[in-house]
Amino acid sequence: MPELKGWKEIPIGGLIVEPGNSKQYKTGTWRVMRPVYQPENCIHCMQCWLYCPDQAIVVEIVDGKPKMRGYNYYYCKGCGLCANVCPKSTDPKTKQPAPEDKRAIVMKPETEFAEE
Amino acid sequence: MPLKQAITGAEAIAYAMKQINPDVVAAYPITPQTPVVEYFAKYVADGVVDTEMIPVESEHSAMSAVVGAAAAGARAFTATASVGLALMHEVVFIAASLRLPIVMAVANRALSGPINIHCDHSDAMAERDSGWIQLWAENAQEAYDFTVMAYRIAEHPDVRLPVMVNFDGFIISHGVEVVETLDDDVVKNFVGKPIKMYPLLDTSKPVTYGPLDLYDYYFEHKRQQIEAMRHVPRVFKEVAEEFAKISGRKYDLLDEFMVDDAEYIMVALGSTAGTIKHTIKELRAEGKKVGLVKPWVFRPFVKSEFQRVLNARKGVVVLDRSASFGAEAPLYEAVKSALYEVAVRPQMGSYVYGLGGRDITPEHIRQAFEDAFKGNLIADEERYLGLRE
């Protein structure tokens, strides 16, 4: 994950001289709300992975099956789609938002993580 | 053998471009630039150049077309004047920002309004912070010479900036003078093959021109442009030195005329320098120690050169052929700022003249010098030559 480069290190004229470099673009700095993963509640349904527009969900394959392993905050813009589609965000009985401690993904203000 | 021809400044520039044989010329007619491209179009029609000529629907398109051509790796040229340059404005900045070595001849003409077709410098001055190198010709010979030199400066790997060759509308563009042109082969060898950097047409090395550039990198790219301008004085001197070898004509950042023992120095751009030189000779015959500094290179504005020449003179009189409404005239402002740090600051005076093609005569020049002789220069006052009160 490269740091921002100085003016002497980049091509002139704002040219992009190599393909595929949007990988280096740190969209994580745009984030206002941060999705926080609570693995004890996760059922590994992969809905978050399917919907994430930035491929920021970290997945590990265990015994041929995908397991949610949290976020790549370098890319995560904090859009909250993952928390929105997560089945654990809804209480199955009341169909109301689940209490925070029962959810697999909780959206928290980025300011709470300012130290990191 | 060099050839002496009686031609206009417009034809001189077109003749230089014929010898350079650019890949692409895109232009839109506007007085008094039109004859440049008219003459060049004849070369295209006669098949003496290989140029792809693109007649476009506006100056905005003309500059856009040469931007595209230059990005593709072509040697591209355009010419314009006045409101045509103003219509290009957006793309003028893009050409410099994308670091494209385009050459553009500007037949300096007053900006509207009211509409006026005659010479002043308001068109080029409105582009002085666009990132283009600005060369200023005094006559058709200099217009020819700068056109021959321009690509060498623009394409230099340490520069990669577009060059504007300024020549006074009508006075230079339409006035017939004797111009000494070089042989085709000599110009061809001097200009050489285009030095290409990141050409779009090199499909083995794909590049992207003009992507979105936000607060994380835009500033760094502007800093690169600032740096490129800092290389221009050195590169200009190198190219000028080489040009002197093929032409016998020596250029520098400033044209210094009778300055060695001068107590009073006038500073002016373009064709008026010819009238000033004439007047200086008359004043010298009367025993006055006067001289002229004519910037051949106005952008970059090389402060150290002005400091070297103007330090400790009794008086410096700056003539501007454009106004900056509500502020000091552009050349005066720059010269005055350059002299802030000199050891012995001269008296300074600002004179605006010739707007909309108003004639400037030796009497006007004398009048400004007389103010200087009397010690009657006021640094914060703007005066006007040839204006009815």
Automatic annotation (TrEMBL), chain A:
Its cofactor is [4Fe-4S] cluster. The keyword Ligase does not apply. Keywords: 4Fe-4S, Iron, Iron-sulfur, Metal-binding, Pyruvate, Repeat. Residues 90-104 have a biased composition (Basic and acidic residues). GO terms for molecular function: 4 iron, 4 sulfur cluster binding; metal ion binding; oxidoreductase activity, acting on the aldehyde or oxo group of donors, iron-sulfur protein as acceptor. Pfam families: Fer4_7. It comes from the Bacteria. Coiled coil: none annotated. PROSITE patterns: 4FE4S_FER_1, 4FE4S_FER_2. Residues 33-62, 66-96 form the 4Fe-4S ferredoxin-type domain. Residues 89-116 are annotated as: Disordered. NCBIfam families: PorD_KorD. This is 4Fe-4S dicluster domain-containing protein. It comes from Fervidobacterium pennivorans.
